[in-house]
UniProtKB/TrEMBL annotation:
It comes from Streptomyces orinoci. It comes from the Bacteria. Belongs to the cytochrome P450 family. This is Cytochrome P450. PROSITE patterns: CYTOCHROME_P450 (PS00086). Keywords: Heme, Iron, Metal-binding, Monooxygenase, Oxidoreductase. InterPro entries: Cyt_P450 (IPR001128), Cyt_P450_B (IPR002397), Cyt_P450_CS (IPR017972), Cyt_P450_sf (IPR036396).
Length: 401
């Protein structure tokens, strides 16, 4: 099978995925790094693959030379995105005890206040890049609150997260420096919270770790904090940005949301299906030869399950290219499926809903500040997000929904 160039998946992803689904369920591709992988495109196969125990997340099952990912120190590699059962079951079970729906619900009101403060800062200008001025900082502040990061440390924390989430190609060493600094920071923070626990997730995770019935290792605690940062910030930034753009592109949808603010949760969920920030699930490696859609894939090769393609599959979602708030989205795979379903899905939804509610309430005539064709998407197949989202509003006018 001749490898497919992935460039069209960046420049025109949904039309390209539609063509691939029509042509076949599984395709050999050459990734941007020049390494081969198998891309699974149809809903039924992707859903099965997400919960197939033969498809391992553990990089140790990858064949030599088949995979090159983000290199992390061993302490940070001990995370849920690189684990299979039984380790995954144990760690996730302990985290779930601390990361409860009640904790997420308690964050909504403080987050709404923070959203208001961020909007206060940009409102007088009448325009802003919504990603850097609003959607970017809000999830970082939420994660700081969630983990109980002291106010005095947040400036450094923001600098490190900015380096990791928007790396400077001209300074690749900065990423390594930021990772080392954050490891040192989290090590000290865990020590201080063990001595003086607070009302935060990290303190609760430490308490779970110290139970005699189960334990999170020091590396697991550090990697969980790091994972919450990376997994809880960047996707939420782009979920907010993509949803704002969808509303601006679909005036009838904007009118419906303003008329019925309770529909905002459905809007976030539907846009997450239609144009979510995660086009691909975390890579998998078959522990044995597997057959997907009639295609045999050798053990150890890289398998990419396309969430973006699956969520636009007409066999699962009729008129999948259309935003429909009233469709059945119970099979939405945007946050994964099965034992690896995103642990922070409820947090991401809450953050996006809160951010959008505050934004739409504040600005009644929000619009793009540049021609639509000037917007640019990040040049990667692994994330779906805008590089910037310039918007403007009438700074003299206030409105509610």
């Amino acid at each position: 099978m001749r490898p497919i160039d992935v460039t069209p998946l960046i420049t025109d992803p949904y039309a390209t995925y539609a063509g691939l689904r029509e042509a076949g369920p599984v395709h050999r591709i050459t990734g941007p790094d020049g390494r081969p992988a198998w891309l699974v495109t149809r809903y039924a196969d992707v859903r099965r693959g997400l919960n197939d125990p033969r498809l391992s997340l553990d990089k140790r099952h990858a064949l030599p030379g088949q995979y090159s990912g983000f290199a992390l120190p061993p302490a940070l590699d001990a995370n849920l995105l690189n684990m299979d059962p039984p380790d995954h079951t144990r760690v996730r079970g302990l985290v779930v005890k601390a990361f409860t729906p009640g904790r997420v619900a308690k964050m909504r009101a403080p987050l709404a206040k923070t959203a208001g403060q961020l909007l206060d800062a940009i409102e007088p200008d009448g325009r802003a890049d919504l990603l850097t001025g609003y959607a970017g900082p809000l999830p970082v502040i939420a994660i700081c609150d969630l983990l109980g990061i002291p106010e005095r440390d947040r400036r450094d924390f923001r600098q490190w997260t900015d380096t990791l989430l928007t790396p400077d190609p001209a300074n690749p060493a900065a990423i390594k420096e930021a990772v080392v600094a954050m490891m040192r920071f989290f090590g000290g923070l865990i020590g201080s919270k063990r001595a003086e626990p607070g009302d935060d997730l990290l303190s609760d995770l430490i308490a779970v770790r110290d139970d005699e019935d189960g334990a999170l290792s020091a590396d697991e605690l550090t990697s969980l904090a790091f994972l919450l940062l990376l997994g809880g910030c960047e996707p939420t930034v782009h979920l907010i940005g993509n949803t704002v753009l969808a509303l601006l592109d679909h005036p009838e949808l904007m009118r419906e949301v303003r008329k019925n603010p309770d529909s905002l949760a459905a809007v976030v969920d539907e846009v997450n299906r239609w144009d979510g920030p995660y086009p691909l699930a975390i890579r998998r490696f078959p522990v044995e030869e597997v057959e997907i859609g009639g295609v045999r894939i050798p053990a150890g090769e890289t398998v990419l399950l396309s969430l973006a393609s699956a969520n636009r599959d007409e066999q699962q979602f009729p008129e999948a290219d259309r935003i429909d708030l009233h469709r059945d989205r119970s099979g939405n795979l945007a946050f994964g499926h099965g034992i690896h379903h995103c642990l922070a899905a409820s947090l991401a939804r809450m953050e996006a809903e809160t951010a959008l509610a505050a934004l739409l309430e504040r600005f009644p005539h929000l619009e793009l500040a540049v021609p639509r064709e000037e917007l640019r998407w990040r040049p990667t197949i692994r994330a779906r997000g805008l590089i910037s989202l310039p918007v403007r509003w009438d700074s003299t006018e206030r409105a509610g929904f």
